[in-house]
Amino acid sequence: MTLALASAQSSALPTAASPLVLGVAAVYFVGVGAIAIWASRRTRTKEDFFLAGKSIGLIALTLAAMASTFSSFTFIGGPGLLYAQGMGAMLFVLPASITNVLAAWVLAKRLRLLVEVRPILTIPDALAVRFGSRAVHGLSALGVIAGTIGYMGTQVLGLGVVMDALFGFGIPTGIWIGTLIVTLYAASGGILAGIYTDVLQGLIMAVASLLVFLFAMDVGGGMTNITTTILAADTAWTSPWGTQTPLGAASLYFLFSVGVLGQPHVMHKFFMIRDPRRLKWYPLLVTIAMIVVILLMLGVGMAAKYLTVTGGIPVADLVDSNAAAPIFLLRFTPAILAAVVFAGIAAAVMSTVDSFVNVGAAALTHDLPTVLGRPIRDELRWGRIATLALGVTSAALAHLAFESSTLIAVLGIFGYGVFAATLAPALAIGLNWRRATRAGAVASVSVGLGISVVLGVLDLFDLFVVPGGITAPAIALAGSFAALLAVSLLTSKGQLDEVAPEVRKALTM
Which pTM value belongs to this model? Predict the structure, then answer.
């Protein structure tokens, strides 16, 4: 969800380097280091590294899922999108609380129980267990790797932007320094370090979001005054679609509402909860947490538009819309709150990078070797090596691409789209519908991965643009769902016993 950070390389964010901001950032980095040391001492097996030893409590799971879903989008990208595109930009985040409730209802308990009946470490593992297919296992692992590389490109670029905003030493240097920090603690503490960094980030996000929203409403004289002032100056901005086409907005809503069911860095966390019976409280808690965090995007985006309309912020200062949140924070909120939010931005990016690099490392060191019949003996050691390799690869990719906003934007869309189209239908339908067949899953994963890659390459080189403003990943996701349903219905006769008895029991409890 950090696509809006993509254009930030063309115009650096306002530098926030002040003793207070730097002091808060330093405290945060010390905290991250302490978490990494603590987590490394508790990470002794591959289950610890990839599943946090199945020891995560409900509150930690809720904050980690919320933090991984929103990432730095809420702090920088979200307000910038809302300022630039109007209320239609809210379609990126409005589905979030609904779909995470949906994920809890249709996937969370089943994924957690599957870990009890089979030795599962990853989402591709779960699909392989459900469908009994090497093809599904291997193709979904390739989708995870492809999506991780694309999505981490935007995340690492965002990390460079934040480091530059904090310390003012340039985005390329920020990319490498930030990546070094995050890969070291990810390699040492595995997903356990990421989970508890997510907890720290989630707490910062929730408190900061509420406070920033209150300041935004105060600056604009309340929601009614802000809305009527903007409406008088720019009617289109306040329309349900904003500056997007209706079809384009609807496709975004579809992609981000249903596509979240295929985001492995979020779904993977359901494997880790200590007591699956506590999941009944997860929908309520995660909905509350996400509504609170969405307030920051809504408040700052609307306040930035209001201030440009009334002259409080010169329009020229927001040519790069990603500067909306930093400018508002530095000019209209107390310094201590700005400092906390900037620390939160760093927390958001770093913890999300950790989640991505963990699922990517698992696909490289566990899933693909298993599919090829050559499992790695010391997965913990090689998982750490793969984590470092993915970090360096992502930093190099971001460093090479940061001058091309189009490339980074396409990488971000590509990553989310590959995850969604490759995994969401097979997971959401496959774990809930007995008639979903092995052939249907192979077709779904193949179609989703193929369309995502093809449309991503065509978009990258400006060879094809989907008409009507429809986003390409939404087409891949729809095609993947259609393939699963159609092929499963055609091949379901005599295939209802494909699922092993203990797996079927776990999926029906």
Answer: 0.80
Question: Using alpha carbons only, what angle is made at residue 24 by residues 21 and 27, rounded to the nearest 5 degrees?
Answer: 150
The residues, any chain, with a CB within 8 Å of residue 274's CB and separated by 6 or more, are: 54, 55, 56, 57
> What is the C-alpha to C-alpha distance for residues 275 and 277, in angstroms, rounded to an integer?
5
Q: Please state the φ and ψ torsions of residue 377, each to the nearest 5 degrees.
A: -70, -50
- Which residues, other chains included, contact 450 with Cβ-Cβ below 8 Å and sequence gap of 6+? none
Integer CA distances (angstroms), 380 to 96, 126, 268, 360, 377, in order: 33, 20, 17, 14, 9
Q: What is the Cα Rg of the chain in Å?
A: 22
Place of tokens 């295939």: 495
Can you tell me the distance from the alpha carbon of 355 to that of 358, in angstroms, rounded to the nearest whole number? Answer: 5
Burial class (CB in 10 A: 0-12, 13-18, 19+), 316: exposed
Residue 463: how many CA atoms within 13 Å on its side-chain side? 7
Q: What CA–CA distance (Å, rounded) separates 51 from 45? A: 10
Task: Give me the sign of the Cα torsion angle 252, 147, 182, 6.
Answer: negative
Q: Residue 182 has which token pair? A: 């995050």
Residue 184, burial from CB neighbour count under 10 angstroms (0-12, 13-18, 19+): middle
DSSP state for residue 222 in the 8-state scheme:
S
Q: Do residues 75 and 344 make contact, with C-beta atoms less than 8 angstroms apart?
A: yes
- pLDDT tens, N- to C-terminus, the chain (509 residues): 333 333 333 344 445 556 776 777 777 777 767 776 776 666 666 655 555 556 677 877 777 777 766 666 667 777 888 888 888 888 777 776 677 777 878 888 888 888 888 888 889 999 999 998 999 999 999 999 888 877 777 777 767 777 776 677 777 888 888 788 777 766 665 666 667 777 777 777 788 888 999 999 999 999 999 999 999 999 889 888 887 788 888 888 888 888 888 988 888 888 877 787 787 888 888 888 888 888 888 999 999 999 999 999 998 888 777 778 888 988 898 888 887 777 777 766 776 777 777 788 888 888 999 898 888 887 778 877 888 888 888 788 777 766 655 444 456 667 888 899 999 999 999 998 888 999 999 999 999 999 988 887 787 667 777 777 788 889 999 999 999 999 999 987 655 556 777 777 777 76
Give me 294's structure tokens.
Answer: 């969405």
Question: What DSSP designation does 170 have?
Answer: -
